[in-house]
Amino acid sequence: NAAPKFTVKVDQVLKQDLTVTLSNGDTVVIKAGTTSVPYELNAQGDDVYKDGQTVEVGVTDASVDGKSFENLVLGDKAA
Q1: In CA terms, which of 8, 16, 50, 77 is 20 to 30 Å from 34?
Q2: 67 or 6, which is more confident?
Q3: Which has the closest alpha carbon to 2: 51, 32, 41, 33?
């Protein structure tokens, strides 16, 4: 089974690393000078009929070390 792949992105190039916390507790870091980072979940079991499941991942938080956001607006609900 192929692992589900997502892209976590922002709409402008960042000057500092941005740590993004996902709804499943994982974190990814969008590096300074970029706008996105790939994210891959662990694959489900070998039997898609027995181990089938729906995968939803959303963003619950985003932070830059030593900085705070005045009006952080996260995207739509998990997809």
Answers
A1: 77
A2: 6
A3: 41
Adjacent-strand bridge partners of 14: none
Answer yes or no: are the C-beta atoms of 9 and 50 closer than 8 Å.
no
According to DSSP, residue 33 is labeled T
Render 38-72 in DSSP notation, one character per residue. Answer: EEEPPP--S-TTTS-------EEEEE-TT---SS-
Per residue in 40-54, pLDDT (tens digit) is 987 666 665 666 667
Task: Say how far apart CA 30 and CA 35 lie, in whole Å.
Answer: 7
Q: Where are the domains of the chain?
A: 5-63
Contact predicate 52/7, CB 8 Å? no
In angstroms, what CA-CA distances link 24 with 16, 60, 61, 74? 24, 9, 12, 16
Q: Are 43 and 2 in contact (CB under 8 A)?
A: yes
